[in-house]
Amino acid sequence: MSDQPEPQQPTQGSAPRRPDVEPDLEPGAQPEATPDAEPEARPGGVQPGAEPAEARDQTRDETRDEARDETREKARDEARDEAPAEEPEERTAVLRVTRPEVRTAAQPVTRPEAKPEGQAPAGAPEARTVAQPVAQAVVGADARPDRRAALRASLQAAAVQAGAQAGAQAEAQPGVHAGVAAAGIPGQPGAPAQPAQPAQPEIAQEGKKAKKAKRPRRKGWRRLIPTWRFLLGAFLLSMLLVMGLFALGYYMVHIPAANAAAIKQSNVYLYADGSQLARDGEVNRENVTLGQISKDAQHAVLAAEDRDFYTESAIDPKAMIRAAWNTVTGKGKQSGSTITQQYVKNYYLAQEQTVTRKVKEFFISIKLDRVKSKDQILEGYLNTSYFGRNSYGEQAAAQAYYGVDAVDLTPGQGAYLAALLNAPSEYDVIAHPENKQAALARWNYVLDGMVKQGWLTESARKAITFPEPKQSIVSTGMSGQRGYLVKAVNDYLFDNKILTEDQLQAGGYRITTTLQKSKQDAFVKAVNDKVMKNLDKKNNKVDNYVRAGGVSIDPASGKVVAMYGGIDYTKQYVNNATRRDYQDGSTFKPFVFTSAVQNGSVTQDGQPITPNTYYDGTNKRPVQGWNGGEYAPENEDQGSYGQITVRTATNKSVNSVYAQMAVDVGPSKVKQTAIDLGLPSDTPDLNPYPSIALGTSTASVLDMAEAYATLANHGRHGTYTIVEEITKDGEEGAVALPKQKTKQVVSREAADTTTAVLQSVVEEGTATAAQEADRPVAGKTGTAEEDTAAWFAGYTPDLATVVSVMGQDPETGKHKSLYGAMGLERVNGGGAPAEIWAQFTKDALKGKAAKDFDLQLQDGADEAPLPPANPSPEPGTDAGQDNGGATTGGGQATPSAPTGTPTTGGTTTGGPTTTGGTPTTGGTTNTGGTTTTGGTTNTGGTTDTGGGTTDTGGTTDTGGTTDTGGGTTDTGGTDGGTTPGATGGALLPARRN
After folding, report:
1. Residue 635 CB: number of other CB atoms within 10 A?
2. Angle in degrees, CA 451, 457, 460, rounded to 5
3. Radius of gyration of the chain, Cα coordinates, nearest whole angstrom
4. What is the CB-side half-sphere exposure of residue 714 using CA atoms within 13 A?
5. Could you report the per-residue pLDDT of 400-424, keeping only the tens digit for each?
6. In whole angstroms, what is the distance from residue 891 CA to residue 743 CA?
7. Quick one: pLDDT at residue 330?
């Protein structure tokens, strides 16, 4: 087969070329009529030129309107059937090509368009663009299938273009109708008009495929996801907005003058009556040059606050992100600010946490970094930072904590001062020894950072030990009790989130406290009279260890009315009234009994626990019913008491009884009762073990005063307060204070029954010295392990006060025993603490009428005690009498027999005795026993113990009977004062006043 295409044969519906038509016509030109040309036949027999103009115009208009209406109707139908919709031009073109019409124009139709491949050559008589017949003819004539698709697409494109141009020309030229398809062969005279072939769907469809498909619309949840175009546009818009805001902020924010931090305002502290207590306006600051601060101290600050200070810009986005991440993940709250930013905050701006301040800080830091060197910024930062102890700047801090100049600071000292920048109050290990672990962790973090940055060698790091700061500080106008009171007020504000440390440092506050000046003066005088005047610090070394702390609270309101913090704030920084590092001793025992009544507890043999319930008071008696291991506590002075009532055990502070009672109640319940009464839940060593009854916890004097005030208030607890009102810059009510809410935390019967028992302690127990207050008193003595602290906690219906005398080395801060202090063999709760309490209470309530306790007691609390049922020796007892206690292991005296025995004297062994003196087991009495301090004991004779005379009133016959009835014992108290014996074995019943 030849490469040349075969000549196409005309098919039905195609138009053959006319030889009488010029082959080449210019676009848009009309063929000229020749004289001999035979005119074409027109419909209806009308010859060219003979048709009237009006008829021709009318025909043209009717045809045009008809075509337009039909086109619109088809367009609407196709728009409903096809999706996505075609473009208007494309649809119009196809419709014009495929619409059957009758040509009414006299002249031939020529088209000025270019001829696509496969179309008739130029110069044909009529270049009609009837797409379908031509396309069918060409496709049908072409026998090669590989070219059909190309030809079909080419012809379709040409048809679409031709239809569009024909429509435009038809509207522009009268008598010419776009898209006319002749029914017969054009140019033949008299040929009738034939309807055009119907539109071919396949060709129209291929034409549509030639156009690019429109992107389908997203449906369902995909509509909610933004497109990448949207995200990109939003990102670019955001970047432009950020850059615009940055430029605006940089232009508008200027570096201001130094703020009020350099001219700090004072905070004024007032007593409840409005008189001035203290003013903290004297700022302890001494500016030095960077060269006057040791390199180690500088590097420590950089390691703690900003390790990349010299290499980074004023703003560190990475640090901000890292700080936010550490805060979110619980690694500690961090600001993310560079040293430059912190300096700007300290020196140029205020301390408030606002967005405006942060924005200003941001732009000022950037500008400052351009006008000042890094050394200048670091120097300013080290001179304006607050280190605690009212010291501003590295130089003042070096003197306050170590008594040296900043240039002499060692790496260890510098690291500790740098650690303080993070939390000045919290990390002061002297003021808050309970936070020492956290301070050490921060200190190690600083040193490790110095090693990491190359500022300290690994070997030098290992050789550094923690440098304990000094106890005393430089005088800052807070001498005497003023510093302690201000510190207690500030701690209250911080702990209750009333003010932040930064806010308080800004100054301008007027703080009215609940402290009453007359009672405060009375407290100071009582301590001086009963303790300080009795010290001989030059000749007695132990007297240098004596410290004292005390707090007095109004039970009805929970207001602190007086506080004694220590010898002098400028000599001893730590507040003895708020510190939590000395054991509470036996002052905790009343909480165990309160918990027993509150929870309706019973003994191991099912007896309800009341003031008259019997317990075994044997020394080192193992507790029963405890699964946590054997526990056998010692009694004070190793005293054994046998079967005694709860009231007697409280009077004599018997450890073995209260350890057993704690197990009977449940140590966890005891702990919860103590917390309900007022002890903080995080009190150190407040653990649910039997030892909790002995006061192994280390609640502060303030904590214990709050708990005892709850007992005095019949079990109703109101959180203590030390602040009455705060004004800011003269504006009243500028600072809101928490509302004081009172809640019944234990039943009135539980609290009041405890009060009745504690009255016995003052009247006939270890706290008789408290009777000097000359009014009804309830209280309890206590002694810490190794006599490092002695306590007395007591109350009247109007005032609850706790006093503690402590031993502490003034140089090292270590706890010291008080043996030999003030020339005494021992300092116990019934001595100096009870004496201070009595004098203070008497003076504080002077002029106020004394009133009795109004008590509602537990059922059975005021009944006479009965002897224990089926008494028998307990395991672990020594079956004898130790240190003047009641007979142990040998039975319990009946109510008709005297229970008092010499504090010291002979040791008696033998079987149990019953009323009338008849031995029940036939035991023997070993006479002539050896006395420990009182000489010898003769049968039927007397023993002089120094505390009274024992008259046994009968004789002892070996193997016979023992007649002990009728005698009385007057012995010296074991914990201060003199305790009168009780006759007949019956203890004084609880009082109902």
Report:
1. 24
2. 110
3. 54
4. 10
5. 899 899 999 999 999 999 999 988 9
6. 45
7. 60
